[in-house]
Design goal:
72% of the residues lie in helices and 0% in strands.
């Protein structure tokens, strides 16, 4: 690997070990075996590097969300909904879960406008990328209207789950609870 890739991998390890705010440029350099000038040259700033490392970590979660491709039910079905959320929740249970890091980044968003802008763009792509898990198809075929509605619906659920699993994992909902809740919301909307 070159310095760019070494920095990115070192930044990922630092994020998981120390979080965003406590990671210094020197920590990244030590972890990556590079030098301080490399950060500015390749990424512009430590914060931009950490933001990129975080985005790549989130993107890398898609395999875990798919559960090795063993999702039950047809795309759009409640069975598929349950399976995808069960897989997502499974990643939240892991020790050292990156979702705790996500909560830190959400809480500090206003303090780092450059990072916030970078992550806001990445969030939109996350809303686009999560849709095929639930609805089938390919990410390239997802429309902006689908991102703005269903994609953000799923991301809103995920943000709530992150908060619950971070602060009160003992009482945080399981996938079956989310599915039962969705059924009740649908029934109420249909007047049943």
């Amino acid at each position: 690997m070159g310095h760019r890739e070494d920095l990115l991998e070192g930044a990922k390890r630092c994020l998981l070990a120390k979080g965003f705010l406590r990671t210094t440029a020197r920590d990244i350099v030590k972890e990556s075996g590079t030098n301080l000038a490399s950060i500015g040259y390749h990424y512009g700033s430590k914060d931009a590097l950490l933001a990129q490392a975080y985005v790549e970590m989130v993107e890398g979660m898609s395999d875990a969300f798919e559960g090795g491709g063993e999702l039950r039910g047809e795309p759009g079905s409640l069975e598929r909904f349950t399976d995808v959320w069960a897989n997502i929740i499974g990643t939240m249970r892991e020790p050292g879960s990156m979702w705790r890091l996500s909560m830190e980044i959400v809480a500090m968003g206003d303090q780092l406008p450059e990072v916030r802008e970078h992550l806001a763009r990445a969030q939109r792509e996350g809303a686009r990328g999560i849709l095929p898990l639930f609805l089938g198809g390919h990410e390239a075929d997802v429309t902006d209207e689908q991102v703005d509605t269903v994609g953000y619906f799923y991301l809103t659920l995920m943000m709530g789950l992150m908060a619950q699993w971070t602060f009160d994992p003992e009482h945080a909902p399981e996938a079956e609870h989310l599915t039962a809740g969705l059924r009740r919301v649908i029934e109420a909307a249909e007047g049943k």
